[in-house]
Amino acid sequence: MPHYRDEAIVLRTHKLGEVDRILTLLTRNHGQVRAVAKGVRKTSSRFGARLEPFMACDLQLYEGKTLDTVSQAEQIANYGAGIVNDYSRYTVASTIVEAAEKLTRELSNERHYLLVIGALRTLSQSEVEPSQVLDSYLLRALSLSGWVPLLESCSQCGSEPSSFSMHTGSVTCSQCIAAGSVKIGRDGLEHMQSLMAGEWEKVAQQAPKIKQAVSSVVAGYMQWQLERGLRSLSFVERA
Questions:
Q1: How do strand 171-172 and strand 20-27 relate by DSSP bridges?
Q2: Domain total for the chain?
Q3: What is the rounded CA–CA span in Å between residue 172 and residue 165?
């Protein structure tokens, strides 16, 4: 039976039988993988605690017809330790891994993996507002998946934009505003640029009203592209 080794972040788990668990993993080199961790729910399991959501692991897996099997697991980082006891960070982390699961089902690369790792690491360090970590992740994850927001100039005339289209990801000025666009002003668009660049000092300095407006736009943009909402997003606390 073919086997392989890879780094992975645990996106989701659910029970299988009495003692096993099915894991949804985002790996560094093999994309999204579904695998069985046999006996992981036994108290005597040698790697049970290493295979929880928000964990980064070095895994050895055996390839199967429908599900692979985890044969070895070494912990790389336990981001969950700085997340699970804080409601706002937990709901944001849950939304991040839910979005990652949906966006990488068919196609992903190392950059998707590193983006999730970076988002969870930042979230666990408690230095950035959780909602802003989420908005930054969603914008960058959508960009990696082909939905790149074009924020620099009006898509119609090239002038300074003020509105963002959740349908197309493009921006327009007050004269060329497109149907379905949301007016968030230049400050809102600059905030989106800061989120995409991970410029946390600029993000922190932005007014709460602008952050809220951009969060709504980002959530709508994600929902439109996925053609459905993120269940975890409804539990996220917005400042």
A1: unpaired
A2: 2
A3: 8
How far, in Å, CA of 170 to CA of 186, rounded? 14
91 within 8 A of 120, measured Cβ to Cβ: no
**Alpha helix stretches (DSSP H) within the chain:** 87-103, 110-124, 130-144, 185-197, 200-205, 208-226
pLDDT at 17: 82
Note down the domain range covering 73: 3-80
Q: Is residue 126 part of a domain?
A: yes
Q: Is residue 31 part of a domain?
A: yes
Q: How far is CA 160 from the centre of its chain?
A: 30
CA 3, CA 95: separation in Å to the nearest integer? 31
Distance CA(36)–CA(175), nearest Å, equals 56
Question: Which has the closest alpha carbon to 136: 180, 185, 198?
Answer: 198
Token pair, residue 230, equals 């993120």
Q: Which has more confidence, 204 or 239? A: 204
Q: What does the block give as tokens for 23?
A: 């894991």
Count other C-beta atoms under 10 Å from residue 166's C-beta.
Answer: 19
The pLDDT tens digits of the residues spanning 28-57 come to 999 999 999 987 777 666 666 788 899 999
Can you tell me whether residue 65 is helix, strand or coil?
coil
pLDDT digits 0-9 by tens, 83-118: 999 999 999 999 999 999 999 998 899 999 999 999
Mean pLDDT of 17-32: 93
Instruction: Give pLDDT, residue 45.
Output: 65
Residue 14, domain member (yes or no): yes
Query: How many CB atoms lie under 10 A from the CB of residue 61?
Result: 26
